[in-house]
Design brief:
alpha+beta, Arc Repressor Mutant, subunit A, 4-stranded antiparallel β-sheet
């Protein structure tokens, strides 16, 4: 919706004031704090128009107004001036000890970094098993008829799955299968493996390709340490203690609502999926998305890559009243650093 320059200036001033103070904003506050060159009466009239258009709401009987989700969306899309990341914060991200050999630890450290810089909740979605490129496939014999299928990705992520083998499979068969699978399937995603298996399925090799076929048909893709579902990457969530000192979340019911949302992680994963293929940083505000429908809560996310291929997403969850001009560059820089580390791995 088009707003004239004066209405834009007042809306921007109201949002900036509310982000800074968490207090409803009145006309006198605007005229005192911002040099707009207009009287409080004119500001009141424009604020009334903005409220009628759905950009402002009056939470109490006071004269103060607060921005709505519609206002934040307009602000981000047309009014926001994103600052360059301060040199000190950039160096903190660049020097943060993310060089971990274990993949899960790398993901956890990334959430801690996002939380410490933004003072909100950092989240990272690990690569989906189905979209991961694997450099090693191996079947490890266990007791009885059981075997462990181990997939090692190019980035060093280990996925595994337990199998119950047919009675005729021996340890020697598994060894020969390992040699065959490593030679034929290294450097492929699971979907590419399926295609290759289909191509190679013949009378001589069916015994070994059948083993992998059995794996693929026994519940879908392997999960991270056997815990994740077929289509979802593992979700890492930072500490929620960062939210407790924020005025927006001092209401106990609001905190319960957020905890419940995190317990239903699949909703958050679906939302993060929407950001996987997008370039740059995306902002999801409150109830405007169908997956993480929560008034007053926003998610700032970006995808991270390895050698140009999208691996997953990371971001920050906090109040809609967050300083987007500082949070957006934090998320953007962290995504770039993680992309570099993933490429190096």
């Amino acid at each position: 919706m088009d707003l004239n320059e004066r209405s834009r200036g007042i809306l921007k001033a109201i949002i900036n004031s509310y982000i800074a103070t968490a207090e409803p904003v009145g006309s006198r506050t605007i005229t005192k704090r911002y040099e707009l060159g207009i009287s409080p009466a004119t500001v009141r009239n424009i604020m009334a128009d903005l409220e009628e258009m759905g950009f402002l709401a009056q939470p109490h009987t006071s004269a103060g107004r607060v921005p709505t989700g519609k206002a934040y969306r307009f602000y981000i899309d047309t009014l926001l001036e994103v600052r360059a990341l301060p040199r000190q914060q950039e160096q903190e991200i660049m020097n943060y000890p993310l060089h971990r050999s274990e993949f899960g630890q790398l993901m956890k450290e990334t959430t801690r970094l996002l939380s410490s810089l933004s003072h909100y909740v950092g989240v990272v979605m690990a690569p989906k098993p189905a979209e991961t490129v694997y450099r090693h496939v191996e079947f490890v014999p266990l007791s009885g008829r059981r075997a462990l299928a181990v997939f090692v990705s190019e980035a060093g992520i280990i996925h595994n799955r337990m199998l119950l083998l047919d009675p005729e499979f021996t340890a020697r068969d598994l060894e020969r299968a390992n040699n065959f699978l490593s030679r034929e399937l290294s450097g492929k995603t699971l979907s590419q493996m399926r295609e290759r298996v289909t191509e190679l399925m013949d009378e001589d090799r069916s015994r070994y390709t059948g083993l992998l076929t059995t794996l693929m048909q026994s519940g879908g893709e392997p999960g991270e340490h056997g815990e994740q579902g077929a289509s979802e990457g593992e979700l890492y969530v930072g500490s929620m203690s960062e939210l407790f000192d924020i005025p927006d979340f001092r209401d106990l019911d609001k905190i319960k609502e957020i905890f419940h949302a995190f317990e239903e992680k699949h909703r958050l994963i679906q939302l993060l999926d929407r950001a996987v293929e997008a370039e740059g940083v995306q902002v999801f505000i409150g109830a405007e998305n169908p997956y993480f429908d929560m008034e007053g809560v926003s998610l700032v996310v970006a995808s991270y890559r390895a050698e140009g291929n999208v691996m997953g997403t990371l971001g920050v969850i906090g109040p809609s009243r967050m300083p987007y001009n500082t949070v957006i560059p934090i998320v953007d820089c962290t995504a770039k650093v993680l992309s570099r580390l993933m490429s190096e791995r």
